[in-house]
Design a protein that fits this description.
The chain is an alpha/beta fold. The protein has helices at residues 18-35, 49-57, 74-84, 105-118, 218-231, 240-244, 275-278, 298-301, 310-323; strands at 7-11, 39-45, 62-67, 98-102, 121-125, 128-131, 137-143, 148-154, 159-163, 177-181, 209-213, 235-238, 265-269, 286-291, 304-307. The structure holds flavin-adenine dinucleotide (FAD).
Length: 327
Amino acid sequence: MPDNRPIYALIPACGTDTHAELALMAEARKLADRRGGHAHVLMAGSDTEHAVAQARAAGLDHAWHMATPIDLQVHQYVDVFATALQTPGLADGLREALVLVIANPDNEALAGALAARLGGAPLGRCTGFVFDEPGGIAAQRSAYGNRLDITLSANAGPAIAAVRPQAQPSNQDRPTEIHSLEACDARAAYPVNTVPRTEPHAALEGASIVVSGGRGSGEAAFPALYELAAKVGGAVGASLPAVDAGWAPVTRQIGISGKYVSPHIYVAVGISGTPQHLAGIDPHTRIVAINKDADANIFNVAQIGVVAEWQSLIPALIQALEISPAR
Ligand SMILES: Cc1cc2nc3c(=O)[nH]c(=O)nc-3n(C[C@H](O)[C@H](O)[C@H](O)COP(=O)(O)OP(=O)(O)OC[C@H]3O[C@@H](n4cnc5c(N)ncnc54)[C@H](O)[C@@H]3O)c2cc1C
C-alpha cells in the first residue's frame, strides 16, 4: 500500500553538522510515528557513509543516499534533490510528504526553490506540526521576530519546512532500507574549488553585540560603527536603505528580508524602527537607540534611548572606550 503520510528529512552536504543531521533524522522518525507514515532521509554529499549509519541509529525506514564529487551550491542541490525526488519509492508519496531541512540560510533558500520546482508549499521556519485525519498538515511558526504566532495550512504538496531539530534518536531497533541513488547531473557545472571570501570585519552571525547603521547614519558613519563594534567585540549590521545605498554589504542587512539576529545588545544608529527592520531583531534583545528624532518609533522598543545626532555621540563613545576599554 502506498504511503500517503511520509516524512522526508533532506540533508545536503551531509557530514557538515552531524549533530544536527542526526537530530533531524530523529525528528523525522518522531513525526512519522505521530503521522502514521514512513520516515525517510534523502542525503547528498561527498561522504554519506556516516550519515547512513546515523539513519540506522535514528530508526528511519528508508535512507536514500547520493554521492557528489564535492559539496555543491544551493542551486545545484535544488536540481539534484528535485531529480532524486522523482525516484520511485520517493516520488510515490511526494505530494503528501512533509519535507524537513535543518534551519539555516542556505537550507531555507533550498527549501523555497525546491517548493517552487515541485509545486509544493514553502512553510518557512517552523516550530511545530499538527496532522489531521485525512492527512493534512498544519505548521506552526512565528513571524515578525517572534512577535506573532501563525499557523499555516499546507494545501499543496509537498510541504517543505525548515526546523531546528531537537529530537534524540530513541534506539528503536528498526530495520532501515538503504538505497543508493545515481548522482544526477546538476544543471550547472560542479564547482571544482571553493575559496571562502575573507572579510576584515567580524561576522554578524552569533555576535553578542550588534551596532547597526541606517539611512540616518549615512555612509560617513559606517567606518565609526565598525570601529565601535570592534572595540566592544561586536559586529556591524545595517537597515535596508543603508544596504541599498551601498554603505554596507547585503550580508549585513537585518530585517524581514535580511538576517535575524539575537544579540544581547543592539545599538541602532539613525534607524527609525520600522516593523520590517525590527522583524530581524529577537524580542529579548536589548535595544540602545541613537536617533535625532524624539518621536522615532525605535524609542518605543528601546531600553535605552538617546535623542542625538550620531556625529555628536559615536566618536565620543569610541574615545571613551579608548580611555577605558570594554571588557
Ligand atoms: C517587502 C519589504 C521588505 C523590507 N525589508 C527590510 C529589511 O529587511 N530591513 C530593513 O531595515 N528594512 C526593510 N524594509 C524597508 C523598511 O520599510 C524601511 O524603509 C527601513 O527599515 C527604514 O530604514 P531606516 O530606519 O534606516 O531609515 P528611515 O526610516 O529613513 O530612518 C532614518 C532615521 O534616522 C534618523 N536620523 C537622521 N539623521 C540622523 C542623525 N544624524 N543622527 C541620528 N539619527 C538620524 C531619522 O530621524 C530617522 O528616524 C522592507 C520594506 C519592504 C516593503
